[in-house]
């Protein structure tokens, strides 16, 4: 079923967009959703694409949960008249990492095969998707999925990759060893939260969205008690730090991370950027380390000082526009 999601109750950050919701696949009679955000002021013609993934430790979160939807990415889409795709995916622990990667693959197939006709079907005739200019972005565990999109899809698809405090080092002790830690400011929780949840889950159950605080305790308990790989899996395809050296090329990449992040340690981004630069020295890479905790850019706009140069970097590679040129008008 296709449904418009933009309502008067939606947060103001979504006001510039018409939002259309559908599903890109069905698993065990459970539709897995995808939302298409189209700027209200968009004109007919060819338009770039932003594909965005939400965070939540792969355990909680949903495509349109407003607190996890980075405002400046929406602002960028509005300014550049870009169409935004934001999707759900199967969540741990009911699913595993292989299921999530399968959803990722099926989403990209839906985007290339069906998104253009879907945009027309929801009444936006004259809009064309510019598949030559795709920006893929994700925050937290959504950053993991943005990176995995690049690592698992054919080379050359993406013009730009953006990871916002991305969860990339899935094999680190932080996720796989029990010790005192307070992700999302959550006090240490007992591992029995996970055990009881798993015991009560019927085989074949599919969960693909959950608006926090739903399942936040479950997500934090998995991390605090070092049980991430128990549910994610152990094959190297699940680990970006291993896979980044096995692909032939990488698109221009921006990684943004807070220096005091207590939810997704900065070290994971440091290790990923180092591996990326070592294996792909010709790839343009910017690593923006800023003061702050997880989601520190929550109130940032395109005019925020530290962010402006990084937005220029994004636009230069995503849209192939030199924002520093005197012939290019100020865009934000």
What does this structure look like?
The structure is a single chain. Residues 3-9 have low confidence and may be disordered. It is built from 10 helices and 9 strands. It has 332 residues and is an alpha/beta fold. α3 links the parallel β6 and β7.
Task: Name its key features.
single chain; 9-stranded mixed β-sheet; 9 strands; globular; disordered N terminus
Count of helical regions: 10
Read across the widest sheet, the strand sequence of neighbours is 1-2-3-5-4-6-7-8-9
Order of helices and strands: EEEEHEHEHEHHHHHEHEH
For the terminal residues, how far apart are their CA atoms?
A: 36 Å
Give the biggest sheet.
9 strands, mixed
Cα-based radius of gyration, to the nearest Å: 19 Å
SSE inventory with pairings:
Layout: E1 3-4, E2 17-27, E3 30-39, E4 45-53, H1 71-79, E5 83-87, H2 97-121, E6 127-139, H3 141-152, E7 160-164, H4 173-176, H5 192-200, H6 216-224, H7 228-232, H8 240-243, E8 253-258, H9 266-279, E9 285-290, H10 305-318
Short description:
The protein is of the alpha/beta class and 332 residues long. It has ten helices and nine strands.
């Amino acid at each position: 079923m296709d449904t418009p999601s933009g309502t008067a109750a939606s947060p103001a950050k979504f006001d510039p967009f018409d939002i259309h919701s559908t599903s890109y696949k069905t698993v065990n009679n459970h539709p897995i959703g995808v939302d298409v955000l189209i700027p209200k002021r968009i004109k007919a013609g060819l338009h770039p694409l932003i594909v965005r993934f939400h965070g939540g430790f792969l355990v909680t979160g949903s495509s349109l949960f407003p607190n996890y939807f980075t405002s400046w990415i929406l602002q960028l889409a509005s300014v550049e008249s870009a169409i935004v795709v934001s999707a759900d995916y199967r969540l741990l622990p009911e699913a595993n990492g292989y299921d999530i990667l399968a959803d990722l693959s099926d989403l990209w197939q839906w985007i290339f095969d069906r998104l253009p006709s879907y945009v027309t079907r929801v009444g936006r005739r004259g809009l064309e998707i510019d598949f030559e200019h795709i920006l893929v972005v994700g925050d937290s565990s959504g950053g993991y999925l943005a990176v995995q999109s690049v690592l698992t899809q054919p080379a050359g698809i993406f013009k730009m990759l953006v990871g916002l405090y991305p969860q990339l080092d899935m094999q680190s002790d932080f996720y796989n060893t029990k010790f005192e830690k307070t992700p999302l400011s959550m006090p240490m929780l007992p591992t029995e939260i996970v055990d009881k949840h798993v015991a009560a889950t019927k085989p074949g159950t599919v969960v693909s969205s959950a608006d926090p605080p739903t399942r936040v305790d479950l997500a934090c308990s998995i991390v605090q008690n070092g049980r991430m790989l128990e549910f994610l899996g152990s094959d190297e395809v699940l680990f970006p730090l291993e896979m980044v050296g096995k692909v032939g090329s990488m698109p221009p990449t921006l990684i943004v991370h807070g220096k005091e992040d207590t939810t997704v340690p900065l070290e994971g981004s440091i290790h990923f950027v180092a591996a990326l630069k070592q294996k792909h020295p010709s790839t343009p890479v910017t690593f923006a380390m800023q003061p702050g905790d997880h989601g520190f850019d929550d109130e940032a706009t395109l005019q925020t000082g530290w962010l402006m140069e990084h937005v220029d970097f994004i636009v230069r590679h995503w849209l192939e526009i030199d924002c520093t040129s005197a012939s290019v008008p100020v865009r934000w």
